Structures are given as C-alpha cells and as structure tokens.
Structure prediction request, 277 residues.
Amino acid sequence: MKTNYRVLPAVLAALLLSACGTPAQNTPAEPAAATAASAAAAPETTAAETEPEPVSELKNDGSMYADLSEGMPSVFEASDGWSNGSMFNVTWRADNVTFNDGRMQLVIDNDKKPKGGVPYSGGEFRSKDFYGYGLYEVSMKAIKNDGVVSSFFTYTGPSDSNPWDEIDVEILGKDTTQVQFNYFTDSKGGHEYMHELGFDASESFHVYGFEWKEDSITWYVDGEAVHTAEKKIPVTPGKIMMNAWCGTGVDGWLNAFNDANVPLKAEYEWVRFTPAV
Prediction:
C-alpha cells in the first residue's frame, strides 16, 4: 500500500510517466468504466450545490477547475489510438473529443479506420496529473441509447505501474433515470450500487460527484449525498477521467448496442477537484 500524500502542482508532471498516451489495461471482473485516483490528508470538504466560478484550471492549493466552454484545458488530454479491449467495443479517438456550443462532447461513432475487429470509435478525456483524497465533481448530460455508458471516474492501474484503483459514476444509456456507483481497490470490485435519480440524465445537465476519504466514499447528485461506501476504500493516486463508449459481450448489463442513431454524444460543462484539507 502506498503512503498517502498530497500531490503538489510542482511535482505533478513527474508522476505522468507512462500514463499519458498509454492505454489503460482494463479487463475487469465485473462491469465498470476505466480510469484513475491520487492521495492526500483526510478531507473536510463537502459537496458543492452551485456551479463554480470560471477560474483557471490548477491552482496553488492543489485544487483544479476546468471550464469546458473554453475548449481543451491544459491539464487534460484526449485518449487516442487504442482500445481497452474486453467489453469496450470502441477505439479511443482524439477526434471524438469535441468542443462546441460552450460544452465538451464525447462522441460514439462508426470508426473511420477500424482495426482489430473494433468497429466503433469513442471519446475519452483524462487528466494529465494524479489526484487524491478530496471532492470530485462534474456537470454532465448522458447519452440515452441501449448499449452505451457515459461516465465520470478516477482510475489508475498497471499502465501507471500502480494497482488498479477506481471510483466510478456511470450512467447506462438503457435507463438514464438511474446512475451506477462502483469502485475497485487493487483490482477488486463488486461494489455496484444503482441510485434512482428522479429525473432523466439525458435531458439536462446535472452535477455528479464523490468525496473520497481515507475511510469512505460518498457519492452526490446535485449536491445531495445519496450513497456511502466504507469498506476496502481505494488508496492509490490516479487520474480524473470521463468517457463515452459502447459495449460488447455485456448485453445483460448494458443491453445490446443500438447503432442506428450514431453519432451519439455525452456532454460536459465543467469538472472540478477540491483537495482534502
């Protein structure tokens, strides 16, 4: 187990190593989207109920805010040129991460240059740096379509020379009135929890988030705490990620992918990290 530490802006770049431009090897034992997390002191943060002010990206206190209406933030990048394999039936393409109408779009489409028997392309957006204990939030609108996932999560794993640790917010396109929460600690998952939203996540933007502490994870929807986990909590620093993808071989989870309406777009307005204090 790694010793918890607070990631400071001055050393973030040194932690990237093989993570940037390297596919995450994600072959989960049970369904989950893939990507990363980081460590700090036990947090005293609480979920925000209002949209953040449009400040710029990474700040000296370790917090991060990216206003996606302004285009690609300097502290994020688009995955490009590989597939996670297993249940992911897309190749990540940088062209599938777009910025239009004051929002970011993660696109699922027919791949223009399919390879390895993967017919579709998907969009994945991830931080260059690693983040730890604190509050993670995003304003997003999900895809409504059988067979797809719209996500917000943290992840690290073998491509970062780390254990597989992950914390997930996943909206399944087959039923966008629910959100699935999950987490993995050293590759062990099985913590799925379905929460009834009381609205359709594909119709408007809502704020989803989770507060990661040393001894718990609490998930939030529009500032309201809706679920807490307290067993075998992840400890490893990772990356903040968002992706949109269609599945294969997981029809019982996602339903069979309906590609009649491609391209499909999940949209994001902003993303924020507030470190523990």
About this structure: The first strand starts at residue 57 and ends at 58. The mean pLDDT is 85. The first helix runs from residue 251 to 254. DSSP finds one helix and 17 strands in the chain.
